[in-house]
Design goal:
Elements lengths: L6 H18 L18 E7 H11 L3 E7 L13 H8 L3 E4 L6 H10 L4 E4 H5 L13 H9 L6 H7 L14 H18 L4 H28 L4 E4 L5 H6 L3 E2 L3 H8 L6 H8 L9 E5 L5 H12 L4 E4 L10 H18 L1
Parallel strand pairs: 1-2, 1-3, 3-4, 5-6, 5-7, 7-8
Helix pairs in contact: 1-4, 2-8, 2-9, 3-4, 6-8, 8-9, 9-14
GO molecular function, one term: metal ion binding
Protein name: Zinc ABC transporter solute-binding protein
Subcellular location: Cell envelope
C-alpha cells in the first residue's frame, strides 16, 4: 500500500478544477433541476463513503438506489479529488449522506457545484458530538429526528463520550454506535419525506437496523465490564469513540495520533513516549488503522509485535467484499474482544 496522504489542500485544488470543468460542460447551479419526490421509483441516495452507503441501504431497503463516491478500501476521503462524473452522480441524487466535520470536504463541494435542491444529511451534525446549535435551528426536521431513533446517545452509552476529551472534534463518528443509531433515524425520516408511500417500510427497516446496532452495543458493554480502564494504544484517533464506549483507556500521546492522521512526523520525544508503551508496563492492545502505512506506524507495529502485544486492525471504509455495516463493525469488535481476552 502506498504511503499516505495528500489531504485537503489537494482536494481543494481538485474541486476548483472540477467547477471549471462543469461550467464548460454546461452543468451549473443555474440549470440544475431540483429532484422531485419519489413516485414509485427508487429514491436515489449518494453517500461519501461505502460506510454511509451501507447504512443508507439498510434503512432504505429495496426502495432506494444507493451509490458511494469512495468504495475503494485503499482510498482516503481526506485527500479525495472530485471528478465531473462524481458531480453528475451527486446532481442526480435526492438524498446525500456525508460525514462532515472536515472529513469529506470534497462532498460538500460536490453538493455545492451540483446546484438544485436535495436533502443533505451530515453525520457529525446528526450525531450530537459537535454543538450545531449555531447553524441548525432547534426543533426543525433534523432536530426532531434526533429524538426519534437516537435517544441512546443521551443514555449511559452516550455519556461515555462526555468524559473523553479529544482536544478537538474526532470526526470519525461512524465508530460511535449511538451516533450511527441517530443517523439511521435521520435517514428514515428524510426517506419518509421524500417517498411517503413507503414510509412505514423505512421506519421498520430503521428499527431492524437499530436493533442490530443494539446487539453490537451489548458486545461493547461486555468489553467494558470485563476490561474496565484497560490501557490500549492507537495509531490514529479513528476508533476513538468505540474504545471510549468500551471503557478502555487510550494511553497514546495525542500529539502522536494527530501527527499520523495529518501525515506529519511526530517529534522524536513523542515517538519515544509511544514506543515506551510497549516496554514499560505495556498496553494490552495496539489498535492500528489498517489503511495507513508509514514508516512511523510500521515502527509502532513492530514494537507491539516484539513485546507480544496483540495488534487489532480497523479501517475507515468497508473492506473489499463487505457491504454490511453491522457485519463489518461486528468483526472489528470481536477482534478487539479476542485480543483483550488473550492478554
Amino acid at each position: 500500500m502506498s504511503l499516505r496522504r495528500l489531504r485537503l489542500g489537494t482536494a481543494a485544488a481538485g474541486l476548483a478544477a472540477l467547477t471549471l470543468a462543469l461550467a464548460a460542460c454546461g452543468s451549473s447551479a443555474d440549470t440544475a433541476a431540483a429532484p422531485a419526490p419519489a413516485t414509485g421509483s427508487s429514491v436515489k441516495v449518494v453517500a461519501s463513503t461505502n460506510v454511509y452507503a451501507a447504512i443508507a441501504q439498510a434503512v432504505g431497503g429495496d426502495n432506494v438506489t444507493v451509490s458511494s463516491i469512495i468504495d475503494d478500501p485503499s482510498a482516503d476521503p481526506h485527500s479525495h479529488e472530485a471528478t465531473p462524473a462524481e458531480a453528475a452522480t451527486v446532481a442526480g441524487a435526492q438524498i446525500v449522506v456525508l460525514n462532515g466535520g472536515g472529513y469529506d470536504d470534497f462532498m460538500t463541494g460536490l453538493v455545492s457545484s451540483a446546484g438544485g435542491d436535495r436533502t443533505v444529511i451530515d453525520a457529525v451534525a446528526v450525531s450530537g458530538l459537535e454543538d450545531t446549535s449555531a447553524t441548525e435551528p432547534a426543533g426543525d426536521a433534523h432536530g426532531d429526528a434526533h429524538g426519534e431513533h437516537g435517544d441512546a446517545h443521551g443514555d449511559a452509552h452516550g455519556d461515555a463520550h462526555a468524559g473523553h476529551d479529544h482536544g478537538s472534534l474526532n470526526e470519525h463518528v461512524w465508530y460511535s454506535l449511538p451516533a450511527v443509531k441517530k443517523l439511521a433515524g435521520q435517514i428514515a425520516l428524510d426517506l419518509r419525506v421524500t417517498d411517503a408511500a413507503n414510509a412505514a417500510e423505512y421506519s421498520a427497516n430503521a428499527d431492524a437496523f437499530i436493533a442490530r446496532i443494539d446487539g453490537l452495543q451489548a458486545k461493547v458493554d461486555a468489553i467494558k465490564a470485563a476490561h474496565p480502564g484497560t490501557r490500549v494504544a492507537v495509531t490514529e484517533p479513528v476508533p476513538g469513540y468505540l474504545l471510549s464506549d468500551a471503557g478502555l483507556t487510550n494511553a497514546t500521546p495525542e500529539e502522536f495520533a494527530r501527527a499520523v492522521e495529518t501525515d506529519t512526523d511526530p517529534p522524536a520525544a513523542v515517538l519515544q513516549q509511544t514506543l515506551a508503551l510497549f516496554t514499560t508496563d505495556p498496553v494490552r492492545v495496539l489498535v492500528l488503522n489498517g489503511q495507513t502505512q508509514t514508516p512511523t506506524t510500521d515502527q509502532v507495529r513492530q514494537a507491539a509485535t516484539t513485546a507480544g502485544v496483540p495488534v487489532v486492525e480497523v479501517t475507515e471504509t468497508l473492506p473489499a467484499g463487505v457491504t454490511d455495516y453491522v457485519t463489518w463493525m461486528d468483526g472489528q469488535i470481536d477482534a478487539l474482544a479476542t485480543a483483550l481476552d488473550r492478554t
